[in-house]
Amino acid sequence: MIIYNEQAKTYTLHSKNTTYQMKVWDYGVLLHTYYGPRLRDGDLSCLLRRKDRGFSPNPNEAGGSRTFSLDTFPQEYSTCGVGDYRLPSIELELPSGSRTADLRYVGGEVRRGKYGLEGLPAFHGSAEEWETLSIVLRDAAARVEVELLYGVLEEYDLITRAVRVKNVGGEPVRLCRCASLCLDFIRSDLDLITFNGAHVMERCPSRAPLRPGIQSVDSVRGASSHQHNPFVILCDRDAGEEHGLCYGAMLLYSGNFQAAAEADQFENARLVMGLNPYQFAWTLEPGGAFTAPEAAMVCSPWGFGPMSRQFHRAIRKSLIRDPWADRRKPVLINHWEATEARFTADRLAEIAQEAAALDLELFVMDDGWFGARDDDNAGLGDWFVNEEKLPGGLGALVERVKALGMSFGIWIEPEMVNEDSELYRAHPDWILNVPGRRPSRGRNQLVLDFSRQDVREHIYTQIKTVLSSADISYVKWDMNRSLTEVWSPALPANRQGEVYHRYVLGVYEFAERLHRDFPHILIEGCCGGGGRFDGGMLYYTPQIWCSDNTDAIDRLRIQYGTSFCYPVSTMGAHVSAVPNGTTGRLTPMETRGVVAMHGTFGYEMDLSRCTPEEKEVVRRQVARFKAHYDLIQDGDYYRLSDPFRDGPYTAWEHVSRDKREALVSLVTGPFRGAPPFLSLRVRGLDPALRYRVNGGEIYGGDALMAAGYPLPMFSGDYQSMQLHLTAVDA
Question: Which of 102, 145, 264, 534 is flagged as catalytic?
Fold first, then answer.
């Protein structure tokens, strides 16, 4: 619900459990007054107090008054160079060379439904679910208008934000910074939580108190990155899973981003999130406009768990466009760890036959099927079937797989090219590279200039031909290096600051064409695993390979950190062989399956090497996942322990929305002598109901949550168990 109070000049955004408010203040300055637990209607500007602060300047309109300064009030969208010295949201370079922005309120409009963004991912939904607020600010001297867009998904406490900047003057203006979200707090006693890591160890939470100055995470790699995720939390110092006020903010963007929090001189805080200003400059011709990516916020008065569950529900309901939304997704087998890029059609058919016998349903052909591709040194860019490996073309292999009762999937990496390829020999100028420099290589490959329409069109035409040649139901879209030498001959020298962003827009356009032309195909995103795991890609690819690290124990941490924002249904997770290829760790097959069920579920191994006993475990795992599919994929998710604290176990839980069913999963750590007796307290049940555990004993929901379930005495490292709880009618 969005309410405009004309007398008080306040805009109040109510969700189910929260309230957000801004106010048009003196001189047309738009100030932020409140964001927190839901309140009754009212003007919260009583929280804004005036005082003459030394070295905090006053707008010219204030005349002799020294008590009004942009430097001391909470701003709704912070400006630059006109008196607010904190983190700016926007920076303009005007024809005079000045780099200031001074925005004043012009007007606002409330309407039913959700705004859309041109060429960018965004939450979506019906007019009954969403409301939109549009507020226009203007810099009269620069002749630039800024439209602040807010969407409210009331049921899930989700508020989205986006920004459009328009040049309404007669001369070009350069946009050097344009954030999507600015959130001010009249307090700074907050913790900042970010999700960081590296390739094969993504999205590990890091928590620290705000300190005076600026703390930030960002990416300049051309993708949202393995190193830092475009999702952060600001929270009470004592906030935990089920208590404390917290604010989650995600950016729906898959390129260079920045999330920065500042604690200022007066113990206030500001969070600014959006495009990274690194090497960014966008020229706005007269009449031209620029749209910044969407950001989304959830405030939870009751800790991280409720915040995460609201994000999960909103992402599943109103962000993801999933061709399998109305049916169970197939359990897959990927042959990469069995063969890598060297294989024959007969070998792939053998792997598919082994998988079909174990009730797996989707065979995914990974890297190596195209061009002259036997390893990662050649062939990228040549998207035509290698008929020496696949006699009779792709269709022949697909029919062999379908005859086993399985569907077929395929791997692509459209943004990359090898120098040893027909494409590169014909078009060496199609890569990102700076004139006079030799390009850097990553994984012995170069990056195609996806900011260019002609490059995208060539690659898309090839891939469309392949996807149209056979019955393909799944595509894994990979990206295996970061961007370097970011320069494009398609733009003049004074517009090279647009290339990074135009590259991402090109990726989105390519993905949208796939979505439109092949609406039946399930696309799984990948960037060396989790290097582009963000809300932007989830709009186009409803699941993303969570990490190239398939070690079950490391995955406990990776999937735990990912869950703070992103739902289980989006996390690509597979069972792989041991010793694990990344860590060398030995983990029981049963445990590997329990961990992989915390995701989309599949296998990435040579099943022919499994013992009969291991194959029987696979059959049971597949049957269990199918039986609990709806509960795992759509249920409410609870983190029951923190794997970063090195406790005796890691546990998590899926609970049905009606609270009548739950699945609890647990994995132990290394075995230690003289272990204690342990109980596991679950969450999210109905305390008034009784629950049968694994078809046996019955416990009260209140007892399971308050006292816990008595755990057995485990023996050996990395053991696992699952508890299926079903409500028992009186």
Answer: 534
Chain length of the chain = 730
State the Cα–Cα distance between residues 546 and 106, nearest whole angstrom: 44
Cα 337 from Cα 176, distance rounded (Å): 45
Long-range contacts of 580-584 (CB under 8 A, 24+ apart): 580/550, 580/551, 580/552, 581/337, 581/550, 582/200, 582/548, 582/549, 582/550, 582/551, 582/554, 583/549, 583/551, 583/553, 583/554
Task: Verify cis geometry, omega within 30 degrees of 0, for the bond prior to 579.
Answer: yes
- The answer, yes or no, to whether residue 19 has pLDDT greater than 90, is yes
For the CA atoms of 412, 417, 418, 423, the dihedral, rounded to the nearest 10 degrees, stands at: 110
Closest CA to 172 of 91, 287, 280: 287
What is the model's pLDDT at position 730? 61
As given in the structure block, the two tokens for residue 69 are 């300064």
CA triple 109-114-116, angle to 5 deg? 100
Going by their DSSP bridges, the two strands 602-604 and 690-693 should be labelled as unpaired
Q: Six-digit token pair at 673? A: 């002598």
Q: Report the distance separating Cα 107 and Cα 115, nearest Å.
A: 17
Q: 456: part of which helix (H) or strand (E)?
A: helix 453-468
CA atoms of 270 and 296, how far apart (whole Å): 16
Predicted confidence (pLDDT) at residue 31 exceeds the cutoff of 80: yes
Is 120 within 8 Å of 252 (Cβ atoms)?
yes
Separation between Cα atoms, residue 647 and residue 669, nearest integer Å: 7
Locate 362 and state its tokens: 């989707």
Strands 90-93 and 173-185, bridge-based pairing: antiparallel
| Two tokens, residue 468 | 């149209």
pLDDT at 215 over 90: yes
Give the closest residue to 234 by CA, choosing from 208, 252, 212, 257. 208
Q: How does pLDDT run across 625-645, given as a tens digit for each residue?
A: 999 999 999 999 999 999 999
614 among known catalytic residues: yes
At 199, is the pLDDT very low, low, confident or very high (cuts 50, 70, 90)? very high
Q: Which of 62-66, 263-267, 270-274 has the lowest mean pLDDT?
A: 62-66
3-state secondary structure labels for all residues of 213-257? EEEEEECCCCCCCCCECCEEEEEECCCCCCCECEEEEEECCCCCE
Beta strands in 294-413 (DSSP E): 295-300, 332-334, 362-365, 407-412
Output the furthest CA–CA distance in the chain (Å, rounded). Answer: 87
Question: How far apart, in Å, are the Cα atoms of 432 and each of 119, 461, 510?
Answer: 22, 20, 17
From the list 512, 606, 614, 717, the catalytic residue is 614
Single pTM value for the model: 0.97
pLDDT tens string 403-415: 999 999 999 999 9
Q: Which string of DSSP letters, residue by residue, matches 127-175?
A: TTTEEEEEEEEEETTTTEEEEEEEEEEGGGTEEEEEEEEEE-SSS-EEE
pLDDT higher than threshold 90 for residue 64? no
Q: Are strands 144-153 and 130-139 parallel, antiparallel or unpaired?
A: antiparallel
449 catalytic residue (yes or no): no
